[in-house]
Every structure is written in C-alpha cells, then in structure tokens.
C-alpha cells in the first residue's frame, strides 16, 4: 500500500527535483530550498559524495506521510546503477529509486522491498522490458533527445506505459510534456545552475516556485 501511495504522491506533485552537487551538505541545502519553493519530490543522485548522508539528514527532517504538513517531502535516490547501491540508499532512508538505465537486479530488489523504482529507458523494447519486470513508471531519459510528442508516439503500442521525462524539461516546455501525458517530470540543472553560479541558493526557491506554478497551470483539469 505504501508503494501505491508514494507513486500517487509523485504523480500529484508532478515535479521531481533531480539534485547534484559537490557535497552532501550542498545537496541537502539545495533540497531544502527546492522544498521551500514547493517541490516536494526530491531525488538525491549517487554522483554526490556521501549522498546517502544527505538522504538520511533530509529524511530526519521531512516526512512523506502527511502531504498537508509543513515538513512534507518525499526523498529518493537517483543515478542508481546497481542493486547494491539501491539497497544502501534504502537503508539511508530513500523512499524511491531512480536509475538512468534498466538494471534487472535493481528492479527486483526494489520490488522485494515494495519500493517504487523508476529506471531509465529510451526505446519501446526497453520500456516493455521494464514493465515486464513490474516497473510502474519508466523514466524517459535523456528527455532532451525527444520532443513531447514522443509520449503519445510510444503510447501507440504501449498505452499502459507511465512515462516520466527527465533531462531537457524546462519552464518553456513543461506544459507541452504534461499535455502530452507525462506521469511527472524530472527537473535537473535548470533548477540549480543559476544558484550554483552565483552562490545565492534562494534562487532555487524562486525557480521551484515558478516550476510548481507552471505545473499547476498545465495540470489543471487533467484528473
């Protein structure tokens, strides 16, 4: 039941912040600023040094059980390449796992523990293979290789596929991705690059607010 609830929370929230940084402390600060701006689904990538420490710190502060609460957020792990890393992130507190590609052992481990897993895929064959392993949502990656029309194109043969484009999604095209049928969207460097360049992390909060406003406008009436 928790897995179903988490998947619904990701869909309802609509925007996943994909966070990379130079340290656990930096990426935890990024997450805090994104949450302040209204993005409540946070993916901490395993390219961050001591990334699991950031996940543990954030899950001590933010809880997924009460979507109406002030400290509500769902913290997950990203750029997970293998089952060993996936298990480490779950022990650190991650509530969902995202991979750039489809690794069967990672999917099986997450299914074993009832955790949402969102592997990356690019082709009909990869998406089909993921669904055959029990994947509920496939990360369409890298999204910048496609236009939003790829979603209805893929749903021609695979109408049951839930797809989350990540990479290349921005404020200008978010509405098009949502209108095309995206389950949710992943936002990476566009959310944080200005803050990293200037050292002003309040810019992440401002950008997060803009993304959530754009998502709410795009998603109006989709239910």
Automatic annotation (TrEMBL):
Keyword Lyase in annotation: yes
A Pfam family recorded for this sequence: Aldolase
Keyword Aminoacyl-tRNA synthetase among UniProt keywords: no
EC number(s) recorded for this UniProt protein: 4.1.2.14, 4.1.3.16
Pathway(s) per entry: Carbohydrate acid metabolism
GO MF annotation: an example: (R,S)-4-hydroxy-2-oxoglutarate aldolase activity
Entry keyword set: Carbohydrate metabolism, Lyase
Quaternary structure, from the entry: Homotrimer.
Family under the similarity heading: Belongs to the KHG/KDPG aldolase family.
Official protein name in the record: Bifunctional 2-keto-4-hydroxyglutarate aldolase/2-keto-3-deoxy-6-phosphogluconate aldolase
Lineage: Bacteria, Bacillati, Bacillota, Bacilli, Bacillales
